[in-house]
TrEMBL record, chain A:
Family (UniProt): Belongs to the binding-protein-dependent transport system permease family. CysTW subfamily.
Keywords: Cell membrane, Membrane, Transmembrane, Transmembrane helix, Transport
Keyword rRNA-binding: no
NCBIfam families associated with the record: 3a0107s02c
Molecular-function annotations in GO: phosphate transmembrane transporter activity
Gene3D superfamilies: MetI-like
Gene Ontology BP, a term: phosphate ion transmembrane transport
Protein's membrane topology: Multi-pass membrane protein
Ranges where the ABC transmembrane type-1 domain occurs: 63-281
Any one of the GO CC terms: plasma membrane
Keyword Metal-binding carried by entry: no
Annotated organism of origin: Paenibacillus abyssi
Name by which UniProt lists this protein: Phosphate transport system permease protein PstA
InterPro entries: MetI-like, MetI-like_sf, Phosphate_PstA
UniProtKB/TrEMBL annotation, chain B:
PROSITE patterns recorded: ABC_TRANSPORTER_1, ABC_TRANSPORTER_2
Keyword Hydrolase included in the entry's annotation: no
Protein name from the UniProt record: Phosphate import ATP-binding protein PstB 1
Any matching Pfam family: ABC_tran
GO annotations of cellular component type: membrane
From TrEMBL, chain C:
UniProt keywords, alphabetically: Cell membrane, Membrane, Phosphate transport, Transmembrane, Transmembrane helix, Transport
Function (record text): Part of the binding-protein-dependent transport system for phosphate; probably responsible for the translocation of the substrate across the membrane.
Membrane topology: Multi-pass membrane protein
Protein name in UniProt: Phosphate transport system permease protein
Length: 296, 252, 299
């Protein structure tokens, strides 16, 4: 009996240390990136273009590309994901076909992002002739992100009490009207939180973009906001290297003498942005939750 | 004699091939309250939910038989369910107001059904709330969230919401079971008011409630309709032994 | 009821139709995308065998990858070996940690766990893979270089980076499984005078083992498909290494590095697509193992 108690104590101690270790691991990771990177981050770093062989390059265009690409991706992903999620949750009849579609979505969500990128290279970049472009990148990221968006939408709709849906139907609303006007507003908190977290994932993704959005940017003219001119930052058909891709590129083939510092700085910016997404999602989730429960 | 508001003929309901309601035929008079009673799981709620085709939304549910409103069998695949449901209001066990303002909760249905005129909508909202005996409590806060109302108020709001689209029949599924005694009394009072205009079918597990508010009572047991008669008769002189056992509280 | 019948019945039917068609089109887009993805990757990947006459067995078992040689050699075994060894090793490191984290969050300190450990795990999942690669390259590789013989790059560094990346995957699934265990199961054991560890070890662990395995397989699947973080720390030499600290490659790293430098349609390029096909096939295998495990854990 004494022995069992000793073993129990040791096991508990081990488990607690592992938990502590994980917390320290994250703290160490964040601390390392921020300490190494933040020193290099300045307004100039965030706005100026990169240098290939000399010191002092920035990440301005990459940061812009990442944000713009995120925007494009979400504009395509959200309507598609909502539609597909609504279908799976509300219209699909239980049976073989639905099970099969579920399996497909699961398969798609487990495809390595590099494979999604290759598919983009073959079909979007070459076959559709989009070339290395923001648009091709956004579509590849859409494919990569759709299964998640479908799952988020389904979760959101599942969180709506059954009686709400029935109340809508009993009033003589069509099913579609019930979904869009009665159920969606209640599902929005869950969907919004999930979407913001998904955005963080999109923002940090690189492998799917290497061969779709490309690994270079033209010299952008930030005074030209005509989306059709080739050097306009808003042109969706120009190649665009994102922040995440940039970090990968300078780490593997960076020639600038301060490549390591730039990578650290860019990583810090990337991490801070992703953290921000996380915090906003959490805060928004709590805020909306409180709004709903406090008024009850 | 009251005219028939709705009548079910040989209604069978099953969930995934398990029978829940077996061969029930019932006529419901308009401008009367009919109570459906019986122990839990006896099929009374399932029966009620078949009447506005709400069981359509449950996977695995199957309803056969006929349900007549006037000269139309509404349990037919050809029935336009959406238009049908406009004629049949429904109130649930737990109040389920939309996550919208009090005004929107009521105006939403009529507006969807084509009434766009703001003044007309205002009138409908006021009229419905008055009918539901909620107007005085809410007229100064029409545009605040309906979720801030108390449980009893929410339930009356739900009743107001359903009468705003001018149904002729109202189905109620234990509408007072989640409420305190004072709110329950208010709801019962309201039901007695409403029966002057509507055919009301109410499921209840509370026999005193059935005795207080209904003209007719139907007793369900294990999916069968055991007895259907005027409420007075049922509670004083039931014909079947199961009915008298249930009413006297020997099981359930 | 104010309107006449034909007026009130039409608009909602149209609306219903629009909704159905729109959502069905969205799901159709998804289905078509998946099918075309499988089709295109497979047809590209098979060209190597049908058009370029590379032997399948040679590709899967050959240990020499030299596309520029004479004759060119396409032995992909080093990459396959690299992918399997890094991802399995990563799971071996991560699984015990994930198990402990799950037990901590559910059994030992639920309040603290939910408030602090859970967000930590979620944040770990949110860190982009290039950042993991960067930290691996600037911390783990130099550290290994100092401690162990070799350059610090290789399977060990790759597996370590991957283990942190898949830790959230396994932890989340283990935690869910642990939380959904019927409480009577544990209480019965405690009532018999067992200690917490005895209960966990004898009752909890065996019951949640299939779920834990599901998490592990999902983790391996994720590690198997991860490209950039691994590519940055693995060294990228195309041969089977003699130790854990020697440069090698994985399927993903080989694709990442060479796809941009080869001409579409060349044998070398096609061979890279064959690697992608192997990756995709493994994804299917992982999904089916996961499904099989899930069915078992339900019983």
């Amino acid at each position: 009996m004494m022995k069992a108690k000793t073993v129990d104590k040791i096991a508990t101690a081990v488990i607690i240390s592992v938990a502590a270790f994980i917390v320290i691991l994250l703290a160490g990771l964040l601390g390392y990136i921020l300490v190494r990177g933040l020193g290099h981050v300045s307004v100039d770093f965030l706005t100026s273009p990169p240098e290939t062989i000399s010191e002092g390059g920035g990440i301005g265009p990459q940061l812009f590309n990442s944000l713009f690409l995120l925007f494009l991706t979400m504009i395509i992903t959200v309507p598609l994901g909502l539609g597909a999620g609504i279908y799976m949750s509300e219209y699909a009849k239980p049976g073989r076909v639905t099970d099969f579609i579920r399996l497909l979505v699961e398969v798609l969500s487990s495809f390595p992002s590099i494979v999604v990128g290759l598919f983009g290279l073959l079909v979007l970049v070459n076959m559709f002739g989009l070339g290395f472009s923001l648009f091709a990148g956004a579509l590849a990221l859409t494919v990569f992100n759709l299964p998640l968006m479908v799952r988020i939408t389904e979760q959101g709709l599942k969180s709506v009490p059954r009686e709400q849906k029935e109340a809508g139907l009993a009033l003589g609303l069509s099913k579609w009207k019930t979904i869009t006007s009665i159920m969606m507003p209640i599902a929005i908190p869950v969907i919004l939180t999930g979407t913001i977290l998904a955005s963080g994932r999109v923002f940090g993704e690189a492998a799917a973009l290497l061969f779709t959005a490309g690994m270079s940017s033209p010299r952008l003219d930030f005074s030209d906001w005509n989306p059709l001119s080739p050097f306009s930052p808003l042109n969706p058909f120009r190649p665009a290297e994102t922040l995440a891709v940039h970090i990968w590129k300078i780490n593997s083939e960076g020639l600038a003498p301060d490549a390591a510092e730039i990578a650290a700085g860019a990583s810090a910016v990337l991490i801070i942005t992703v953290l921000l997404f996380n915090l906003v999602a959490r805060w928004l989730g709590r805020l909306i939750h409180r709004k709903f429960t406090a008024s009850k | 004699m009251h005219e028939i508001g709705l009548s079910a003929k040989n209604l069978y309901v099953s969930y995934n091939d398990k029978p829940a309601v077996k061969n029930v035929s019932l006529d419901f008079a308009s401008k009367q309250v009919t109570a459906l009673i019986g122990p839990s799981g006896c099929g009374k709620s399932t029966f009620l939910r078949s009447l506005n085709r709400m069981n359509d939304t449950i996977p695995g549910a199957k309803v056969t038989g006929e349900i007549w409103i006037g000269d139309e069998n509404i349990n037919s695949p050809k029935t336009d369910v959406v238009s049908l449901r406009q004629k049949i209001g429904m109130v649930w066990q737990r109040p389920n107001p939309f996550h919208k303002s009090i005004y929107e909760n009521i105006a939403f249905g009529p507006r969807y059904h084509g009434i766009k005129n703001k003044k007309k909508l205002d009138e409908i909202v006021e009229e419905s709330l008055k009918k539901a005996a909620l107007w005085n409590e809410t007229k100064d806060r029409l545009h605040t969230s309906a979720l801030a109302l108390s449980g009893g108020q929410q339930q009356r709001l739900c009743i107001a919401r359903s009468i705003a689209v001018k149904p002729s029949i109202i189905l109620m599924d234990e509408p007072a079971s989640a409420l305190d005694p004072v709110s329950t009394a208010k709801i019962e009072e309201l039901i007695t008011e409403l029966k002057q205009e509507y055919c009301i079918i109410i499921v209840t597990h509370n026999m005193q409630q059935a005795a207080r508010i209904s003209e007719k009572t139907a007793f369900f047991l294990m999916g069968d309709l055991v007895e259907y008669d005027s409420t007075d008769k049922m509670f004083t002189d039931p014909q079947k032994k199961q009915t008298s056992d249930y009413i006297s509280g020997r099981f359930g | 009821m104010a309107q006449s019948k034909q007026h009130e019945s039409k608009p909602h039917l149209v609306e219903e139709w629009v909704g159905k068609v729109y959502t069905a089109l969205c799901i159709l887009f998804l289905v078509v995308t998946i099918f075309s993805m499988v089709y295109f990757v497979a047809s590209k990947g098979l060209t190597t065998f049908f058009k370029d006459k590379v032997n399948v067995i040679d590709l899967l078992t050959g240990i020499k990858w030299n596309p520029g040689g004479d004759p060119p050699l396409f032995g992909a075994l080093p990459f396959i070996f690299g992918s399997f060894s890094t991802s399995i090793l990563a799971a071996v490191i991560a699984a015990p940690l994930a198990f402990c984290a799950a037990v901590f969050m559910i059994e030992i300190a639920p309040k603290f766990g939910r408030k602090y450990l859970q967000p930590v795990i979620e944040l770990l999942a949110g860190i982009p893979s290039v950042v993991y690669g960067f930290v691996g390259l600037s911390v783990i590789v130099p550290l290994f270089r100092d401690i162990f013989p070799g350059q610090g790059i290789g399977i060990a560094a790759g597996a370590l980076v991957l283990s942190v990346m898949i830790l959230p995957t396994i932890t989340t699934i283990a935690t869910d499984a642990l939380a959904s265990l019927p409480s009577g199961l544990k209480e019965g054991s405690y009532a018999l005078g067992s200690t917490r560890w005895q209960t966990i070890y004898r009752i909890v662990l065996p019951t949640m083992l299939p779920a834990l395995m599901t998490g592990v397989v999902l983790g391996i699947a994720r590690a198997f498909g991860e490209a950039l973080a691994v590519q940055m720390v693995i060294g990228n030499a195309p041969h089977i290494p003699g130790s854990l600290f020697e440069s090698t490659s994985t399927l993903t790293s080989a694709i990442t590095l060479s796809m941009g430098n080869t001409v579409m349609g060349s044998t070398h390029n096609n061979a890279l697509w064959s690697l992608a096909l192997i990756l995709m096939t493994m994804t299917f295998v992982f999904v089916f193992i996961v499904r099989w495990l899930e069915r078992r854990s339900k019983i």
